[in-house]
Amino acid sequence: MTENIILDTDAYKLTHHLQYPEHLTKIYSYAEARPGSRFHTLSWFGLQMVVHDHLLGKVTEDMIDEAQTLSQSVFGNDEFFNRPVWEKVAKIGYLPIRIKEIGEGAQVPISTPLLTLESTAPWFATTLNALESILMHVWYPTTIATNSLYIKKGLEPVFVRKRQFERAGARCQRFRFERSQQLAVGSAGRCSSFAAFSQLR
């Protein structure tokens, strides 16, 4: 099945352009881990994988047609699908957005802004946050990286005491690939775990 970036979202987000004020030309969004987490810090990891795998492709007329057909079947009309905007995206050949993030692997307190998402074309502003659903897939690798970080912290004193610290990374790998529901998920989890244990000091 060919991925369609227009449809890689929650259905209601296809209607965002009808919900914002008229003449809105700029949106600047951010993501953070909300308070109430198990840990007071997190290890941010995986956004570059998400962007590489899902946001660098080109939108085509076939994708637009497919999205409009599905939108019509979901909502019962054509009024909610913003075809003109997606045709502009297809014409320029890329998504008119700017993404910034803290460094991959950074350990930061909960509630720290982790990424920002910004529209760079006025006509795309009201469609921008439809991409949120894709970007939120960063939480799986970040969760694995964070759990691995705290496992590492718990084991560090043992390896230091036994003078085997340089071998800790190899001994602490968690073999999660086999039980993943999809290959891409398994790869993301494996990379996240490696990221935590490859920098033991």
TrEMBL record:
Q: Which Pfam families match?
A: NAMPT_N
Q: Which InterPro entries does this chain map to?
A: DUF5598, Nicotinamide_PRibTrfase
Q: Which residues form the Nicotinamide phosphoribosyltransferase N-terminal domain?
A: 4-99
- Show the stretches that span the lipid bilayer: none
**PANTHER family annotated for this entry?**
NICOTINAMIDE PHOSPHORIBOSYLTRANSFERASE
Could you identify this protein by its name? Nicotinamide phosphoribosyltransferase N-terminal domain-containing protein
What organism is recorded for this protein? Oenococcus alcoholitolerans
Q: What lineage is this protein's organism placed in? A: Bacteria, Bacillati, Bacillota, Bacilli, Lactobacillales
